[in-house]
Amino acid sequence: MKSAVIKNKTSHEVKGITGAEAVIRCLLAEGVDLVFGYPGGAIMPIYDELYKFQDQLHHVLTRHEQGAAHMAQGFARTSGKVGVAMATSGPGATNLVTGIADAQIDSTPMVCITGQVASHLLGTDAFQETDIIGISTPVTKWNCQITKASDIPSMLAKAFYIARSGRPGPVLIDITKDAQFETFDFQYEPCQGIRSYQPQTEIDPTAIAEAASLINAAQKPLIVWGQGVILGQAEEEFKAFVEKTQIPAAWTILGLSALPTSHPQNMGMVGMHGNYAPNLLTNECDLLIAVGMRFDDRVTGDLGTYAKQAKIIHLEIDPAEINKNVPVDLAVLGNCKSSLQQLLPLVSKKDLSPWYQRFEALKATEINKVINNDLYPTKPGLTMGEAIKVINKHSGGDAIIVTDVGQHQMVACRYAEFNQSKSNVTSGGLGTMGFALPAAIGAKMGAPNREVVAIIGDGGYQMTIQELGTIFQQQLAVKIVVLNNEFLGMVRQWQQLFFDKRYASTEMINPDFIKIAEAYRIPAKKVQNRTELDTAVGEMISCQGPYFLEVCVEKEDNVFPMIPSGASVSDIRLE
Amino acid sequence: MEPTTYTISIYTENNVGLLNRISAIFLKRHINVESLTTSPSEIENVFRFVIVVKMKQENIARVVKQIEKQIDVIRAYYHTDTETIFQESALYKIKSEALFEERHIQNIIKKSQANIVTVSPEFFVIEKTGFREETEKLYEDLRPYGLLQFVRSGRISVSKAKMGISEILNTFKTKNNEEKSS
Prior knowledge:
The structure holds two protein chains of two kinds. By secondary structure, chain A is α/β, with parallel strands linked by helices. Residues 1-11 of chain A have low confidence and may be disordered. Chain B has two domains: 4-84, Alpha-Beta Plaits, CATH 3.30.70.260; 86-152, ACT-like. Chain A, domain 2 (Alpha-Beta Plaits), CATH 3.30.70.1150. Chain B is elongated. The chains are: A alpha/beta, B alpha+beta. The A-B interface holds A 133-134, 137-138, 141-145, 162, 192-198, 318-320, 322-324 and B 12-13, 17, 20-21, 24, 28, 61-62, 65-66, 68-69, 71-74, 169, 172-173, 175-176, 179-180.
């Protein structure tokens, strides 16, 4: 019998409940109404409580724990809330690890709850015992094992606080089975702070003043923004800053959608397959303003030749990122929402038209050499780019685009159009194939009123294809587009360019994807000719439920521009 | 550039998983830990790690920031040898007969300012605290007489400069109280 005595909205008190029920009450107190997971022996008491609380807490049964982790990520990325994934001990917990690592490197707020063998069995190599704390330590922002029910409320409160504050990240809480069964008097207080962890840095006004004077003096400034703008909910401040200074701005893959694609100052993507102009001009600008990004090697290429001529300002929330890869002239530590707010009144507008002409000229070259071939091909085979172009036409730029990893990801991020933030969900830092299908499920549940289109390669699709079962069971209107080139395309591209076309294990003999989708009662269509593409995409977007579209694209197309691994951004190739 | 010896001092909450987290930071970067000691600190419920590493100057700051980033780390510092006062302890176990049969041993002990910790009919144990060179010299001097066991502790160190951990913790307390009352 439940005897809930709720004192007020933030404090919850119940006498004599089990640890398992406490877990559910903690989740409810944190505002969680959705969890992704998979049951098993060591987490059964919690699942038993999920059954009792199913009217308040919806559990999505995935087909693999990796799917649960990626769904929690997709949910977090589109909703801005903390994603929650659950799994049992042993293999259940280890199956979460890829998603946790992905969330760690892409700063996604997530709380994973794993069951663990009873505390008296710890260290005995018991059935389904695995040291998930040891395993997950390098890939979590924080983790902790609970062996006493009375520790559940404070540890879960801490978990949510850590996951969402500062630079967000994944937290794992491992709860022994006996702690789930144990009864205690429950009381919940949300975590207000941890003395050894200070996620809020006060913005240094001297740094702001210095930044403003550097910005105002620059003749050829360039902004490169990352996901920090989205995670810091700083889209408005960022747009205001960009518009007031009139500085051209380019994005890292995770920063995509923070500023609309159509914005006149949006200069495109930086990095290995980014746009020609912002990559080349990184080595021509006199001031590089990095906002909420971390100078990943896929962005910078060779560090020895990266923006050496420029002064660099780094607006960053994580002190450990300052001077980690690129030594900067000025660091502005803190949430970029606050630092941009403080910068705004101090910066002034300048005529940068000669500088913009450099962008225009290089953009024209890219259009000529790359973009026209991608979007308006003259050869008979379909290109990935034209598929994205048709999706743009039917979504109107309002869809959330979820991508997997590889050629299709680069093409989709280069060409997909976005009107609003939190619309790009991709596995950036970790490059996890198999991410998109489950992430799209989570993305849809995080933004149920928005169109969600997953764009996936034929390789990555088959890594988590079983989550079609989750789409079927949850009746989710996720649109799935597989760009099928019957190759692990990005690896094949590298084999072609750097390994003398020795296509070692990159050719795929694929199943009938249409039959597989239909087996899950998902309407499906296969497009092989250009003439069918527009109608098929139109049909997919107007479909009320889930839809599967296979687009058979040119088998051996390459993604350009490209900065070869380890080369300088100046050595970007167009062919 | 030649690597320098750095002493990293970390003030932490007592957390069972933290040792794992900190050692993983070194493992990931192939940094060999010369020594590692943990103990309580001058502040109640605050623990202190002292880690000695040989690293290049351009990398030490990055690694210490990665350590400080860990949730249960209150603050981490790094110092060169000239910026700290440091010592190591060593224990030497020798057959008791050597003490009586080899007169030199008594001179060695006296000269080295080592202490005899215990003497039994079978063996005796000498303790020496000091710099690495001192404990090493005693090791070399005693080795010819047959060392049954030898062990040296990790470095313990205090910085010459103030660390101000209590102030940091007090700021947190005040800040938290202000938030609660506001």
